[in-house]
Amino acid sequence: MENLVVAGVDGSPESRRAAQWALAEASARRWPIWFATVRPPPQVADPRVEVAYHHSAWQAADPLFEELKAAAKDRGVPAHCKLLVGQASDVLVMLSAKAVLSVVGHRDRTGFPSRLGSVASALAAHAHCPTAVISFGQHPQPDPTGDRPAADMSRFAGQIVAAVEPGPSAAAVLSAAADMAQRHNRSLNPVTVDPATEGQPVLPDLLARFQAKHQGLRCSVHTLSGRPVHEITEAARDSWLLVVGTRGISGLPGLLRGSVSQALLQHVISPVLVAPDISSHEAG
């Protein structure tokens, strides 16, 4: 991996919104960015057809690439545009092995996901690096001045919410969430949903180690009771970012591979950062 942001783009409104978010993050980190468009392979195995196909694909992608490169230049971010052939989810997962952050768009609540809709779910579940999934309805870069709660907003408005459960992904979720909280001067709120331990600290030793490592981190732990999808969705309402893992147990089983995680991606409007459980990649 290298200090690099990879953004999947296809010209749709949701992917453009994701590209804006990715570009803002690359600018904040002072990292280069790759914009990647993936086309399916041609249906005819003929060299002449393949040449014509690639030429046509480049012509179609060029206006988008020029637009993105201009936006990157305005921010002083080195940008490269890549047109690749294959299955979009497979190609983006492969590219994620080279990056520290991947970003993809996802249409929310409309019932009409773009070509990146299913790709977003697959990339979030299998990427080698943290993946940000940006909903179409979310502003690409919320107010940069810090936490901005308002009377008609949720209690975590403008803050970072981390869905934490005991299990392999807990450390990865907290690490990614703490890094984003310090990088963007946001409050961090580890949240779990477990009726049996309502009001009690979750993973106190792990949380204590992270707070010791991240001096000055504003962190408040919350244990909620209820239906996981509803509670996490409500906690993330108006948040600056929701951080989740790719695996979980207890209140959030099979995170990103089960119904709870898929429901979160469908219903949470704020950006969702999925932190992979590195041990699962090593085991695979």
Q: Can you walk through the features of this model?
A:
The protein has 284 residues and is an alpha/beta fold. It has 2 domains: 5-135, Rossmann fold; 160-283, Rossmann fold (3-Layer(aba) Sandwich), CATH 3.40.50.12370. Helices cover 40% and strands 18% of the residues. The protein has a 10-stranded mixed sheet, with helices on both faces. The radius of gyration is 19 Å and the shape is elongated. The relative contact order is 0.14. The model is unreliable at 108-116, 139-146, 248-257 and 280-284 (pLDDT under 50).
Task: Summarize this entry quickly.
The protein is an alpha/beta fold.
Q: What labels describe this entry?
A:
284 residues; alpha/beta; Rossmann fold; 2 domains; 9 helices; elongated; disordered C terminus
